[in-house]
User: What shape does this take?
Amino acid sequence: MILKTLGIVVKRMDYGEADRILTVLTFNMGKVKAIAKGSRKILAKLGGHLEPFCLVDFIFHEGKSFYIVTSAVVQNHFKKVHSDIDKTAKAFYIGELLDKFLEENENHPEVFELFVKYLENLESADDPILIPVFSAKILEALGFKPEVSECLHCREKLQPVQNYWDDIEGGVICQSCHEKFGHGGKIDNDIVKILRLIFTHDFNVSTKLKIDDQYKKDVGAVLENYIEGIIEKELKSKKFLKEISDN
Ligand SMILES: [Zn+2]
Assistant: This one.
């Protein structure tokens, strides 16, 4: 079967003498593993089109354990993302995050579109709000949006007093619930407000919010911890399911 899709390579690995295995986030097939078979002639032709973090028109053949790349044509190189080491590092950070977060062959076109927007923004601006906004939108798209408007426990609207953030349950807990249950760590109300703004506005508006740089970093740190917790939990439950099915 021949499959045509837009895709972005997020990981690339040499395989055997001359082959390359790619992890590709695609528009209509989700995250897939594909192999670029390496006769020198083919790789010489395809090579430049298989760099990570370019928007590429792919044609795959269905193989036994991997898709096989039969054609790859770059649509957007994102030149600055590749020439500026800082931007490259930020692309790798998000690429790794998506690789860990997404299951193979589970289709999330909205995640792909967000990733394209992320790379476009990184190419043209690279504001410190970019990673937090992208992280928030990914969480929302994958069903992990944290609660930032009302208390996770009692569902009361959050008041501008000392509130608490709970990574495990995902969101904010009010003062009296914190006193009752002891969950969560202190969170600055301005951070909660910024999170609320990011979740109520779309990607493009959120990346243009006028926010102090320090707050952008703090919001990023909250989301990063939260995401790491989710990935860890998912890995554990996958391991658990595997153990059950192996027994
Ligand atoms: Zn409460």
